[in-house]
Design a protein that fits this description.
This protein has 253 residues and is an alpha/beta fold. It is built from eleven helices and eight strands. An eight-stranded parallel barrel has the order 1-2-3-4-5-6-7-8, surrounded by six helices. Helix 5 packs across helix 7 and helix 7 crosses helix 8. The chain is globular.
Length: 253
C-alpha cells in the first residue's frame, strides 16, 4: 500500500524567524503521525534554522528548487552540495512557477533531477497543464511530455526516491481546484505512463501527489480517490491552522 505523502511548499514567504515559529507549531501538532510522510520546504534563507527545529520530528526538510551544477560560476544559484550540507532531504523540481515564470524547460528539469538523485536526495517532480492547454484538450499530451522528459535517464530503482506531483497550472493559487474525478483521471494517466515505461509493479508503487488550491475542506475527498496519494500544498501550507487539518484529513482536528 502506498504511503500518503503531504508536502508544504512555502514559496517566497516568511522570514527565518517566522518559518521557525511555523515549523515549531507543525512539529508539535503532527507528532507521532508515522503512517504518512510529511515534508516542508521553506525559503532557502530559513532552511538551516528550520532544519534544526524539526530534527527528530519525522518531518522531512525540503528545498523548493536547486541549481543544475554542483558548484561553479553560477550567480544566484544554490547547489545540491549546499542543500545537503544544511540537512535537506528532498527537493521540488519542475514546479509550474519555475517552468512558466522563469522559463525552465524539460531538459533543465531533468538535469536537476538526475543530479539530485546522484546525491541521494528525494525529488518531487511537478507536471501539469495551463488553462489554455486544458481548454485545447492537450492535458494528457502535456503531462506525457513533461513526465517523459523529466524521467529521461531514470531507471526503475530510482523511482522509490521520486514522487510525481500533478499540479494543473490553472488551479495553483487561484482558488480553483480540479474535481476529484478530473484529478484522479490525470493521476491514472500518469500511473499508466509509469507502467508503460517501468512496468506494472513500479506503477502500483509510484506515489503521485495532487497540488492546486488544496485546502482542509477538499482534502479528504481528493485523497479518497484511488490514484491520489498525497498533496503538494502551497498557500494552505503557510499556516498550521490550515496545513495540519490537511495532513490529518482523515482524523479530524
Amino acid at each position: 500500500m502506498r504511503k500518503k505523502y503531504i508536502a508544504g511548499n512555502w514559496k517566497m514567504h516568511k522570514t527565518a524567524s517566522e518559518s521557525v515559529a511555523l515549523a515549531d507549531a507543525l512539529a508539535v501538532s503532527l507528532a507521532g503521525m508515522k503512517d504518512r510522510k510529511i515534508m516542508i520546504a521553506p525559503a532557502f534563507t530559513a532552511l538551516s534554522a528550520v532544519g534544526l527545529r524539526i530534527a527528530g520530528s519525522g518531518i522531512l526538510l525540503g528545498a523548493q528548487n536547486m541549481g543544475p551544477e554542483e558548484q561553479g560560476a553560477h550567480t544566484g544559484e544554490v547547489s545540491v552540495l549546499m542543500l545537503k550540507d544544511l540537512g535537506v532531504q528532498a527537493v521540488i523540481l519542475g514546479h509550474s512557477e519555475r517552468r512558466h515564470t522563469y522559463l525552465e524547460g524539460d531538459g533543465l528539469v531533468n538535469r536537476k533531477l538526475r543530479l539530485a538523485l546522484r546525491h541521494g536526495l528525494e525529488v518531487i517532480l511537478c507536471v501539469g497543464e495551463t488553462q489554455e492547454e486544458r481548454d485545447g484538450g492537450v492535458t494528457r499530451a502535456v503531462v506525457e511530455r513533461q513526465l517523459g522528459a523529466g524521467l529521461e535517464g531514470v531507471v526503475e530503482a530510482d523511482l522509490s526516491r521520486i514522487t510525481v506531483a500533478y499540479e494543473p497550472v490553472w488551479a495553483i493559487g487561484t482558488g480553483k481546484t480540479a474535481t476529484p474525478a478530473d484529478a484522479d483521471e490525470v493521476h491514472f494517466h500518469i500511473r499508466s505512463l509509469i507502467a508503460a515505461r517501468f512496468g506494472k509493479r513500479a506503477a502500483e508503487e509510484q506515489i503521485i501527489q495532487y497540488g492546486g488550491s488544496v485546502k482542509p475542506a477538499n482534502a479528504a475527498e481528493l485523497m479518497s480517490r484511488e490514484n491520489i496519494d498525497g498533496f503538494l500544498v502551497g498557500g494552505a501550507a503557510l499556516s498550521a491552522d490550515s496545513f495540519v487539518p490537511i495532513v490529518r484529513y482523515d482524523r479530524g482536528k
